[in-house]
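Task: sequence in, structure out. Protein: tRNA (guanine-N(1)-)-methyltransferase.
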Amino acid sequence: MTAEAPATPRSHGRVAIRASVRPRDLMEPPEVAGAWTAHVVTLFPEAFPGVLGLSLTGKALSEGLWRLETVALREHGIGRHRNVDDTPAGGGAGMVIRADVLAAALDRTPPGLPVVYLSPRGAPLTQARARALAEGPGVTLICGRFEGVDQRILDARGIEEISIGDYVLTGGELAAQVLIDATVRLIPRVLGNQASLAEESFSSGLLEHPQYTKPAEWEGRRIPEILLSGHHAAISQWRADEAARLTKERRPDLWRAHLDGGDSAKDRQLSGASHQSRDRREQRKDQGDEPDR
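Result:
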């Protein structure tokens, strides 16, 4: 029995106008050219759009301000059972996604876009990286599973690795949605009030100041009087002072970067790399592959 042809990548949102001999469904929305597009390679395309289809990102998706394309990794699997993984070279637990399978899936995505593998060993996702991605035409995201992917495909395609935090998920789908959300909201017209972006955490290198709303008093706690004074210069100064205070208390790495122009993400990445290196040494020692020093 011959294998079925790979399915067409699943698309969400509007796409570019193109000539076609097939009549367009009258209920389909008009198509928009040049929209920022996320191409997601995943074993679980049904996980998308997920939360991205809700609220402001969902509204922007339906309006064609951005697009979402999923590429089903299983469609490019090997053999009768569409296998996408195999045992690790050198032995060990778990399975590894094959380079040839992932390469075939990536070949279904447009060339020229940044390609990102969501990985706990990657560089931390930052507001600056999200902003840079938002300024481009889109991104191709790889959602890993099992023990990860064959290193050769990462090296051969120059794939960037990005982490959303120092922890491990069962797969990259949630991480991909985090990256997309952080990026899409920076696209013009996605948020109702673009001015709010300027006051958010990380926009100026600091955490955001505390926020309050009505009622003026709740359970004996009052809104700071300065915020009710109508003195805009004083309010602005209070907010700046509070942002600095919170950043110094909660994120000293960001505060140091703010003071000297350093890269707090790089500091965390180097720290994470040192922890990973230590963990690998301890693991080899436990397995008898490395002598005690």
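The beta strands are 10-12, 36-42, 66-72, 85-86, 96-97, 115-124, 138-143, 160-163, 217-218, 221-222.
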